[in-house]
Amino acid sequence: MTDDPGPIAGIVTRALELIKDGDVVGLGSGRAATGFVKALGRRVQAGLRIRGVPTSEATAAVATQSGIPLVTLDEVLPLDLTVDGADEVDPQLNLIKGLGGALVREKIVAAASRRLVILVGAEKCVSVLGARGILPVEVVPFGLPLCRQRLTELGCPPTPRLANGRLLVTDNGNHILDCKVSAISDPAKLEQEFLSIPGLVGTGLFLQMADTVLIKNGENVEIKQRKE
Q1: Can you tell me the distance from the alpha carbon of 96 to that of 203, in angstroms, rounded to the nearest whole number?
Q2: What is the mean pLDDT of the segment spanning 213-225?
Q3: CA dist 75 to 103, 167, 197, Å?
Q4: Which is the most buried residue in 14, 76, 118, 168, by most CB within 10 A?
Q5: Is the entire prediction scored with pTM above 0.90?
Q6: Which CATH code is given to the segment(s) 134-203?
Q7: At residue 2, does pLDDT exceed 70?
Q8: Alpha-carbon span 225 to 93, nearest angstrom
């Protein structure tokens, strides 16, 4: 059985090369991460011994169907590496994530890992974060009105994310606000401003977290490593 997950095959194959027998692997969410999880499952079925920590219920379902043994952070800490996708990657390998709605769990698993490996297409690479105009944040339901007001006052008017005509509910029981942004000149400052809002539990800014980014550029795979 092939490991080829379609158009992202090249970066998935390179990511698989980073997995060693016995590793505990954080399993990201989204299209690229799902392709990786399915391919990793085929390796497991062929004899590779690993355990996975999923970043979402959707990923957990895919991993289980693929035959990957799952564990929790209570059982394994730290993880050897996490493989995930991203919505934006800047030249310093800072990220915006969260269009898939799993940003808080993704950030927790990434922070619990010795290494974060990101899989993206070249179209996700930007000169400055915010280029695509959206920064997701997760908020507790009770704090939704206050968070919307404060984010608007910060110049980042939010739109509640819907699913089937209703407010999307994350795996944590929270909601997602998609904040309108332009080029973010100081991501660290913006994140602190956002996190100071009571009820806002996480942002899609993943700063100085990615160690390796695998970029699919046509038929080629470019590898970027974060500079310390």
Answers
A1: 9
A2: 93
A3: 22, 33, 32
A4: 118
A5: yes
A6: 3.30.70.260
A7: no
A8: 8
Q: Are 82 and 113 in contact (CB under 8 A)?
A: yes
The catalytic position among 88, 106, 138, 191 is 106
Q: Which neighbouring-strand residues pair with 193? A: none
How is the chain split into domains, by residue range? 9-123+207-217, 134-203
Check if 106 is active-site. Answer: yes
The predicted pLDDT at position 4 comes to: 42
β-pair type (212-217, 175-180): unpaired
Distance CA 113, CA 116 (A): 7
3-class secondary structure per residue, 196-216: CCCCEEEECEECCCCCEEEEE
Domain at 9-123+207-217: CATH code? 3.40.50.1360
Residue 11 · residue 32 · CB < 8 Å: yes
Q: How far apart, in whole angstroms, are the C-alpha atoms of residue 216 and residue 124?
A: 10
Quickly count: other Cβ atoms within 10 Å of residue 13's Cβ: 16
Bridge partner list, 218: none
Tens digit of pLDDT for each residue in 9-41? 789 999 999 999 999 999 999 999 999 999 999
Phi-psi category of residue 33: left, alpha or beta, with phi > 0 → left and psi -120 to 50 → alpha = alpha
